[in-house]
Write a structure and sequence with these properties.
Structural class: alpha/beta
Largest sheet: 9 strands, mixed
Order of helices and strands: EHEHEHEEHEEHEHHEHHHHEHHHE
Shape: globular
Helix content: 40-55%
CATH superfamily of the largest domain: Spore Coat Polysaccharide Biosynthesis Protein SpsA, Chain A
Distance between the termini: 45 Å
CATH architecture of the largest domain: Alpha-Beta Complex
Radius of gyration: 22 Å
Strand content: 15-25%
């Protein structure tokens, strides 16, 4: 199709994926709606990836190819957004695939709920055929944004239909040069731009596996990069008084959801794991800054609620016992170990704590 403005731009960053890229592009070409363009951004590949991109573009003009010096996945996606022409964006990684119905379903659901944010979930290739007509849906308002941010689907960019106008108006970009968490940072920036422009809108998160992450990706990659060791990333000035800031944030999140106990178990699991770790960071940061941990910290209603929900629903985090035992040095040491390369202490406490609970609690 040669429309000047297609309905959706599918943006694919490419780096040394010669062996895997044809499978990805075949899934895009198989979309049940023909009204799309695919912007392929070759990020300085050293293998034959660029040739693969150009071959597909020669066969189908809906594939467009950009080539740039290697700058990382964030730079590649930013370049793809700048070149994309459609009012909506889909992001696909070059070693994954999407279902034939993905683009059509996302556009149809967006038309049914104009102004809302439409999301789905990621699955491996063993996922069963999805129910495209009546998929389960969780809804989040602006007041519930903090709760949504700590659900698993929120941090992915490959499971949402993004509004190009909001991205441009809000100047939402991927953080170039950031080694970890670029997807989450982009999503959080987008969420804030989304609700700033549409405070009455809703995030509609469907339990629908429209995006497939393949189990053989690691073995078939043309190149592999070792993950470099990293120091603990934190801003001392922004972390002053962090425990009190986090307490207020937690309270707002819990109240917006009608209490943490009212949150579905799947979402509660992720919320509990994330907030346990963040409270542990607060304890660690206070020590680094010479700040005292509040004397009543372990009696805060927020800490009590967090641990009570974990106990009642049997949701396990490695920080559960250190917080429950009110052992500040252990909480602090656990976080330090969690951020280390080996995580030796963290995993020792993690498994001892899990087996102490009978090995039956749900864990992540």
């Amino acid at each position: 199709m040669s429309r000047e403005t297609p309905a959706v731009s599918i943006i694919v960053p490419v780096y040394n994926l010669e062996a895997l890229l044809p499978r990805c592009l075949a899934s895009i070409a198989a979309q049940t709606t023909p009204d799309w363009e695919c912007v392929l951004v070759d990020d300085g590949s050293a293998d034959g990836s660029l040739a693969v991109c150009r071959q597909w573009a020669e066969q189908d003009p809906r594939f467009r190819v950009l080539h740039q010096e290697n700058g990382g996945v964030s730079a590649a996606r930013n370049a793809g957004m700048a070149a994309a022409r459609a009012p909506y964006f889909l992001f696909v990684d070059g070693d994954d695939t999407i279902l034939p119905e993905t683009a059509a379903w996302a556009l149809e659901r967006q038309a049914r709920h104009p102004g809302d944010l439409i999301g789905w979930v990621l699955h491996d290739q063993t996922a069963t055929a999805p129910d495209l007509v009546h998929p389960p849906c969780k809804r989040y308002t602006k007041a519930q944004l903090q709760a949504y941010i700590f659900t698993i689907p929120s941090a992915n960019v490959t499971n949402k239909l993004f509004d190009a106008a909001l991205i441009r108006q809000g100047e939402v970009r991927y953080p170039v040069g950031q080694a970890r968490g670029e997807d989450m940072q982009f999503c959080i920036a987008y969420f804030h731009a989304f609700f700033a422009a549409r405070p009455q809108a809703i995030v509609r998160q469907y339990d629908l596996p429209l995006y497939i992450v393949h189990n053989d990706n690691g073995a078939a990659r043309a190149s592999k990069k070792a993950v470099a060791a990293h120091p603990i990333e934190w801003d001392p000035e922004e972390s002053r008084g962090y425990l009190h800031t986090l307490r207020a944030e937690y309270r707002q999140m819990s109240d917006s959801m009608g209490g943490l106990a009212a949150v579905p178990a799947e979402d509660a699991m992720n919320l509990c794991v994330q907030y346990c770790r963040r409270f542990a960071f607060g304890v660690w940061a206070a020590h680094q800054l010479g700040e005292p941990v509040p004397r009543d910290f372990y009696r805060w209603p927020e800490i009590r609620e967090l641990l009570a929900v974990m106990r009642k629903q049997k949701l396990y985090s490695g920080y559960y016992w250190p917080l429950r035992l009110q052992c500040t040095p252990l909480v602090r040491a656990m976080y330090q170990s969690d951020e280390s390369e080996s995580k030796k202490l963290f995993w020792k406490v993690y498994w001892l704590g899990w087996y102490a609970l009978g090995g039956s609690w749900r864990r992540r």
